[in-house]
Amino acid sequence: MAQPTEGRAPAYIDTTKASIARVYDYALGGKDNYEVDRETIERVRQVAPEVNMLAIDNRAFLIRAARFIATQTSITQYLDCGSGLPTAENTHQVVQRLQPEARVAYVDNDPTVIAHGQALLEDNEFTRFSAADIREPETVLADPTVQGFLDLDQPLALFQIGTIHHFDDAVDPQAIMARYIERLAPGSVVAIAHFFDPENADSELARRMEQVFVHSPMGSGRFRTHAEISGLFPGLELVDPGIVPCYRWWPDGPQLRTEDPVQRCIVGGVGIKR
Ligand code: SAM
């Protein structure tokens, strides 16, 4: 059945091509998505009935990592790469509740996010949005919106949450992260959530989801191993408990539902640059 968004798409939005941000929105239960976006999740659902948990656990990790940084470090500036569409509890809302003057710069290159999300994300003087390709650290960091707003000589929190697994195979994600980290001041932290191949009995599920994602209208979604994901934090000291399934990273309380194997196929971690 068509959702309310259908039929009133603005001209600048191509509703024939899936968008990572809108696929994610659908998986989170949002309404800013089209048939072509929903198709990706519905295809993956054939091999992983609880596929939505990838998005739900990823988002919950973002919120907990943001709260952790806001309360356990003295960092007051955030560079959120791949903001996604505005949803409940965006990074700036989470951290500014704890640190009212914390500055948050969002970066995304999805036309729907740029057109529709920018105004909603930039809802106060301590929040900015920049349209850039996050696979290009030098461009992101040199962007006037970012440079004029964040002090790159001071520690900051860099988020790559649910983003790197969507990079195309032509780029080397470890090299990209090394270039970001090189530019960060000591004391900075990096939070990453990434699709995961557990290299155990759940690997088959991870491989199947990857196959469907990569051949879906969205066309991306790499499940990487622990060693590959560790390589995204070069030179950083990982905060306990290290790189673990997102729902096990400083959970708010006991697991209220039975764990699904899908939940073991997305991990998160936070690293500190000493
Ligand atoms: N970080 C948010 C979260 O975890 O809730 C959103 C995650 S969403 C799955 C991934 C976002 O990264 C999308 O909005 C997508 O447009 C953005 N993205 C992916 N590749 C990108 C690129 N090369 N440059 C800029 N943004 C990108």
TrEMBL record:
Q: Which domain of life is it from?
A: Bacteria
Question: What UniProt keywords are attached to this protein's entry?
Answer: Methyltransferase, Transferase
| Gene3D superfamilies (alphabetical) | Vaccinia Virus protein VP39
Q: What's a single GO MF annotation on this record? A: methyltransferase activity
The EC designation for this entry is 2.1.1.-
The GO biological-process annotations, alphabetized, read as: methylation
What is the official name of this protein in its record? SAM-dependent methyltransferase
Q: Which organism is it from?
A: Pseudonocardia alni subsp. carboxydivorans
